[in-house]
Amino acid sequence: MSTPEITATERTALDRILLDALDPLAPAMRARATGYAADRRWAADPAEVAPAVLGTWNVVDQEVERPTATAARTAASYGAGHERLGAARGLTRPGARRKWPDAVDGPAAAPPTGSSLELFGGTAELFADAASGGWRWSARGADGTRSREAGSPTATKEEAAAHAGAFLKQHSVTDAPTDAPTDAPPAADRSDRPAAG
User: Of 37, 86, 177, 194, whose Cβ has the fewest other Cβ atoms within 10 Å?
Assistant: First the structure.
C-alpha cells in the first residue's frame, strides 16, 4: 500500500490550517524566549526571527507525533502489523517497528481503561462504561465550561475521544466569551439569551 497523495486543493486547505495554528504559537514562543512585550516580539534581525519560526515548526512536528502514535496503536489494536503501519506512513516494516516499537508487540491486551486527553487548553477524561460495554467522556474546556452528561455511550474509545475533542475545540480560550460562567452550558444551549442589538 502506498501513501495516498492529497490534491492541490486539500494541500492548500491544510497549509491554511497549519499556518493558522502557527500564527498564535510562533509569536507567543518568541515573546517568551526574548522577554519582549507582545507588540515587540518580532523586533529583531530577520536572521534571529526566522530560526524562531523554524523552532516553532519543530514543536508542531513533535506535537503531531502524539496523535500519530495514538493512531498507530489504534490501527495495531485492530490487527494491523508493523508492515501495514509502515506502508501507511511511508516507512519500511523495520522503520515502523523502530518508530512504534510497542504498538504491535506491546504487552498483552489489558481490559480497557480510561485515559485523559489534553487539547485546545482543556482536558477530557475517557472511561469505559461497564454497563453498556461502550465508552463515555467528560471534559472541561479551556474557557472553564464543563461538559454536561456525556449522553449515550459510544461504541469505541476513539469515537468518545472525537466527541470530547470537538467539545474542547468549541470551548478553547480563543472561542470563549470573556464573561462566561464556569459551568455554563455550551453556547448552542443559550437560546434564552436576548438577541444583541
Answer: 194
* Grid coordinates given for 132: 453498556
Question: What residue type is assigned to position 188 of the chain?
Answer: A
C-alpha cell at 181: 460562567
Residues whose CB falls within 8 Å of the CB of residue 5, separated by 6 or more in sequence, listed in order: none
Q: Cβ-count burial of 121 within 10 angstroms (0-12 exposed, 13-18 middle, 19+ buried)?
A: middle
Q: The whole model's pTM is what? A: 0.47
**pLDDT tens, N- to C-terminus, the chain (197 residues):** 455 688 999 999 999 998 888 888 888 888 788 777 766 767 777 887 788 888 888 888 888 888 888 888 888 888 888 889 889 888 998 998 899 888 886 544 444 566 777 888 888 888 777 777 788 888 888 888 888 755 677 777 778 888 888 888 888 886 444 444 444 444 444 444 444 44
Question: What φ, ψ does residue 68 adopt, rounded to 5°?
Answer: -65, -45
> Which residue carries 476513539 as its cell?
158
Q: Running DSSP on this structure, what letter comes out for residue 140?
A: E
**Which amino acid, one-letter code, is at 161?**
A
Cell numbers representing residue 126 in the block: 475517557
